[in-house]
Amino acid sequence: MSDAPRIWVDADACPVAIKEILFRAAQRAQISVTLVANHALRVPQSPYIRSIQVPAGFDVADNEIARQVAVGDLVVTQDIPLAAAVIGKGALAVHPRGELYTPDTIQQRLSMRNFMEELRSTGVDTGGPAALHPRDKQAFANQLDRWLAQRVNKP
Q1: What Rg value do the Cα atoms of the chain yield, rounded?
Q2: Which residue, 5, 46, 3, is CA-closest to 27?
Q3: How far is CA 152 from CA 4, 25, 33, 113, 145, in A?
Q4: Which of the four pLDDT bands, split at 50, 70 and 90, describes residue 114?
Q5: Averaged confidence pLDDT in the chain
Q6: What is the C-alpha separation between 11 and 151, in angstroms, rounded?
Q7: Helix (H, G, I), strand (E, B) or coil at 53
Q8: In the predicted model, what is the mean pLDDT of residues 52-77?
Q9: SS3 label, residue 49
Q10: How many CA atoms lie within 13 A of 127 on its CB side?
């Protein structure tokens, strides 16, 4: 299974509904799904699903994912710098709302993230993310299915 593509999940901020989609996909496609977080996670008993608990700290989970990810793997994350790092290593990154980060779009996303961070540091309330909508879950499931079809089901 070491040559098979794997799915890595930045699990600290990953919505439960997205984790459930990933758990079902792991069983169905018999693909490794690893959740990385700085707190203990409960995951279903499965030879395909595991969790890694890393120490608390800034970007510790992100750094662990970036260290272990390989070419062709998929990373589920909302973290733009992590997405950029894994794309740089030849992996793919997808937001839990279904947005596929690409080499063409990641620079724009990094610039926007930095701009929003600058606004927040000056006291501007930029609001939080909207609640996960059923269309977001569907968009994520569609991206995951496309990735699985391209990466896993090859003869």
Answers
A1: 15
A2: 46
A3: 7, 11, 13, 32, 10
A4: low
A5: 88
A6: 22
A7: strand
A8: 95
A9: strand
A10: 3
The rounded distance, in Å, linking the Cα atoms of 109 and 101 is: 9
Q: Hey, how many other C-beta atoms are within 10 angstroms of the C-beta on 44?
A: 13
Amino acid at position 10, single letter: D
- Scored b (16 or more CB within 10 A) or e, 137-151 reads bebbbebbeebbeeb
Tokens of 69: 């990810």
What local confidence, expressed as pLDDT, does residue 1 receive? 42
What is the C-alpha to C-alpha distance for residues 29 and 5, in angstroms, rounded to an integer? Answer: 11
Question: How far is 146 from 135, CA to CA, in rounded Å?
Answer: 16
* Residue 74, φ and ψ in degrees, nearest 5: -120, 135
**pTM for the full predicted model:** 0.85
What was the pLDDT predicted at 116?
63
Tokens 């593509």 belong to residue: 5
Task: Give me the helices (H) in 8-72, please.
Answer: 16-29, 60-68
Mention every residue, 6+ apart, whose C-beta is less than 8 A from residue 89.
66, 69, 70, 71
